[in-house]
Each structure stands twice: as structure tokens, then as C-alpha cells.
Structure prediction request, 471 residues.
Amino acid sequence: MSLDVTRIPPAPSQGRPRGDAGERAFAPGAGPERDLLDACVHCGFCLPTCPTYVLWGEEMDSPRGRILLMDLADKGEIGLDATAVRHWDSCLGCMACVTSCPSGVRYDLLIEATRAQVEERFAREPAERRVRDAAFTVLPHHRRMTAVTAPLIAYRASGLQRALRRSRLYGRLPERLRRVEALAPIVTWAGVREEAPALARPAGEPVLRVAMLTGCVQRAVFGDVNAATARVLAAHGCEVRAPRAQACCGALELHAGRAPSARERARRLIADLDGPDVDRIVVNSAGCGSTLKEYGHLLADDPAWAERAAAFAAKVRDLHEVLAELEPPAGALRPLPLRLAYHDACHLAHAQGVRAEPRAVLARIPGLELVEIPDAAICCGSAGVYNLLQPEPAAELGRMKAGNVRRVAPDALAAANPGCLIQISASLGGDGDPVPTFHPVELVDASLRGEDAAGLLARRAALLRSAGAAR
Ligand code: SF4
Ligand code: SF4
Prediction:
């Protein structure tokens, strides 16, 4: 991978420090922990895996540079100025640096604590604040998400999306609006209407009793993936509960520095999902799963919840971890001959270390050939709400990912995160030569149901073409 330093990083984040944050960035006793900062030995091994460093070749947009800024801010040598905030804002939170760091630096905890201080002590300019507030007014609420998704489907299905993209007006729309429009999720009415049943039972005695997170974006946009998840888990011998009333996990807010509301959502979700007869909490969305596994840390300072949160977190498993532990009934998986590129979602591979399990689960499907994507460790640009808040670098990373996917000429691509599926589908385009995208569990489900691979690919390709995803 070569660096292309001709690309221009975004301008400094606009805004001003609140209170005394101009002199001292972090409130006393708050901000990243000193021993975590000191763990960085400035070796630079993380730099080539950092997507923003790959894009811009700028030290302060690398993990090492961002940690240095945190260090200076913590020592009171710099205040919370717009330039420092810009470098932290442009981090995707992809955690590729956590994987590549030989010294075990917990960059995930460092950026989380830093962003919480930025949210508290930096007044963003009104337009930026409105975009952020709008995103968090809708995204963590699956009913509001559904209310937004339905008009998007109508916009696409009516041909309005295609007409707009081909009109002169499209070129005159603000860049940010065009980038966001391009992400209009590629979903069907079935995807919106379907959902996991509240209770799914296996054919025989359950081998595991699991509670399933249905999510907010996942439930609103990929309800069919949730339904497939419940079917596949039941086929592997699990009793699956998916309570209708369950809170958002708080992942999007936590990654954006909105820690107090993320903590409140964590408490509610623990109460919604956990119980003495639940063996595992199963999550099919990588970003949510990594946050649920961190609940013990998130609520460590809350005496009423710390113990319960740690016990809950210990039960959390990504869907593929559970499936890899179990066996489908002999002969149940039927051939699905296709060449599949598996995309490692950052919050699965880097944040949870789950790489082998999805591949092992997919490799069980007769006839399915797995292929690896070049530069797989580099984020696709989705990263929670990053593609809404930083649409230009997100689109650039999306183009890079799409180029790497096309280099291995797959019949289809699988990714275990709704954000990645939306981002990669939009980046790959669809008009001429679509690459159908799936959650891995949809392919396991299709194999268990004996679906025809050619028909499955053709239906998804037709959806992509109708979405006019090519720009
Ligand atoms: S974060 Fe890790 S890999 Fe990166 S400079 Fe610091 S010690 Fe080296
Ligand atoms: S989380 Fe990702 S974007 Fe942020 S510093 Fe680490 S590698 Fe770079």
C-alpha cells in the first residue's frame, strides 16, 4: 500500500473551548489516563494501518500524533483548540492501531476519554452541532429510523433517486448532502418489515439459551438479517429470545463522546436482555458487540451497576463466535457455490479480535469459496456515524475499499456490520456490474434453506441496480 499524500485533510473543526478549556484542555481528574498515555513508546508501527495517515500522510492524523496531542493536552501544554479537536475528530475509531501496536496501547480507551472531554468542553459551531444532534436524535431509536427509512425506499423505488442523480441539480447540492444521499440504505420493504420473533425454539432440547440484540439501525434497516439470525441460531440448537422492547446499546453515542447517554442506554439494555436463564447475549452487529463487551468498563464507576455490567459483558458473544462453537445438523447445509469476499468489520476484527470464526462458519457451506480482500485491515470509512460527520474522507476510504474488493473479482461480499454493508454497497456502485452484499448469516440461512445461489445473487444484484448506487 502506498501513501497518497496529495489528498487534503479536512479543515480544523470550527468552535471554541468552553470555560477554562482554552488553557487546560481536560477537566482535573478527567480525560485519558496517564498510564495509558505513557504506554505509547512512539515507535510508529501503527502508522501504516491508520486509514487517515494512509489518506493524508500527516503525523497528527496518525495514532501516534493523536496520542501526542492528548499527552500535551493532559499536561496542560495545549488547550482544547480547534486544530487539536480536528485531528481527534478525523479519527475513525477503527482500532486498527490497537491491533498493530506491539506495546499494547489501549487507543480505544484513550480516544473514548478524549472525545468525552471534547463533547463536554468544546462548543462546536452551530451548523456542526445541528448535524450531530440530528444524527443522534434519529439513529439510536429504531422507530425513528424506520420512519426515516420508509421514505428513502419510496425515493429509490419511485425512480426519484436515479432521476436526481442524473439531473444538473444533483451537482449543485452541497457536498455533504450528496455524500449522505449516496448512503441511502439499499434495503427492501421486507428488510424493514421483517424482524426476529420474540422467541425461536430449536427442534430439540436447547443446547444454549441466548438473548439477541436486535439493535436500532440493524432492526430498522436489516430486520431480515435479524430474522435470519434467529432462524440460524435455532437451527444450531439455540433457544433465542429477542425481546421487542429493548434499548439501543449506546455504541454510536459512546464512539462520539456522548458517554452519559451511552451509560444510561447500557443500564436499560442490561435490564432488557439479561436474566439468570440466559447463557449468552448474542450480537450480529460488530459495532454494537464491541460496545456490549465493554459494559464492565463503561459502568465500572457506578456502584449500583458495576458488578451486573461486568457479568453481562462476560456473556456477550458475536454471533459467529456462538455459531463456531456449535454444529449445524449433519447434512443441513446445502451447496451455495459462489466466490465470496469476506470483509473484516473493524469493530469485529480489531476491537473484538474475531477474525477466524466468521471465516470458519462460512467455510462450512459446501461450494462456497472464500477470498481475502487486499489491505483488509484498512477501514471502509463507515465507522459508526463517521460517514455522516466526515463524508469526504469516508467516501475516499469507501472508494479504496471498493477498488480492493473488485481486484479479487468476487461474486458477492459479506460483512457483519450494518454500517459496513451500507458504506461498501454505496461505494461499489451498482448500475453496471454490481457486487451483491450480504451479512454472513444470510448466506448460512440461504444454505440451510437450500436456496439457489444464482437466484440469490441475481435478486440482490437487481436491488443494487434499482438503487442506482453507481454514481
Ligand atoms: S500506539 Fe503503539 S504502535 Fe503506535 S506509536 Fe504508540 S507504541 Fe508505537
Ligand atoms: S482508530 Fe483508526 S483512524 Fe483512529 S488513530 Fe487508530 S487506526 Fe487511525
About this structure: DSSP finds 27 helices and eleven strands in the chain. Confidence is low (pLDDT under 50) at residues 2-6. Residues 40-46, 63-64, 97, 101, 103, 105 surround iron/sulfur cluster (ligand 1) (CB under 6 Å).
